[in-house]
Design goal:
Length: 370
Amino acid sequence: MRFICVLLVCLSLSFSYDFSFCQKYYKDASISIYNTRAVLLEYGKQKFFVAFFKTPPPKNLQIIKADPFIGLYAFNLPTKNKQSYMLMPIDSKAKSLNVAAINHSNVQKGIIIQAQKGFLNYARFSGKIPNNGVISNICYQIYGLGMGDTFFIDSKYLNRFLSQDKPYYGDLGIRLYPPKQGDQTLKVQYVDPFFPNVPFLKNDEILSINDQPIKDYYQFEWFVSNLPKDSIARVKIKRIQDKKPQTLTFDVSVQERYGGFLLPDVFFDRIGIKLDHELKIISVDPSKHNLQQGLLQGDALLWINGERIFSYTKQDPQKVQKRLREILTQAVSKGKLEVLISRDGFQFTLNLINGLQNDYIKARYNPFGF
């Protein structure tokens, strides 16, 4: 079948890049699944039916790999007698080829405009590519998986997903300001107070990690995400202190990331606490009881360090998360983390600072407020 596809492509190059036979290949290499299709991908000597879902797929589907951070899922579906796809890198040659966005009902010719830059900064195609369609130039070779509009997840990120038994992203306990055109400065926007001994402060500038200069936001994202858990990352920063720049170096133990990308990112997951969009605790991990300082399922977070988190319950969840990250980042610099909660009609304060594994934060606390 693959030999026939190559022959047909070679013949079509002499005419007008007729990708119609690749559409038949797509039908043979995919399967209908919950209003979309899963595509059969090769990785090593294994094959996986993979599909993109922005929100978790229905529970009745048999999932064998799941990465809700970026919305990729592999399903337990029969692969016998099915065609499959090889993943090809998006290099300079790929960008020069005539390719097509292909699904079971449509073929859209075009070119690859750019490779994927970050986990949510997707690759771009010159035309529309349906959800879980493929970008191909030879029927059995593809460069990515479509996610609607002109965007697709490219092979680099698909290979990362397929290489892992469960999703893993390294974390240094910080989130950077989003990139701005013409400004490659990497500054800390948010700091996770629950990250073990996190040394960073808001607006610290990241210079290098493990003696490797970090040039842009997306290099930082990829580099940190692939650092091994419990390895030591030597991070060099620039910090403005007393109006004077200082260059500091910290050795940080890499930990697993719990939120971000397509998932909520509110830092409490690190201590085994899951919050709903109104900041009510919906589950508590008993194995992290010593970090939770008395917080219980059903508690609702109202204030932190005397600051209201949000003003009304129907506020945009994204804005609530952002506000919570801002207040928790302030708590890092204050060395103080007092949370006002509501429990069964009563309101009281819990001091979470004693449960934090962070000497840097504790050293900043000033009980006299100056």
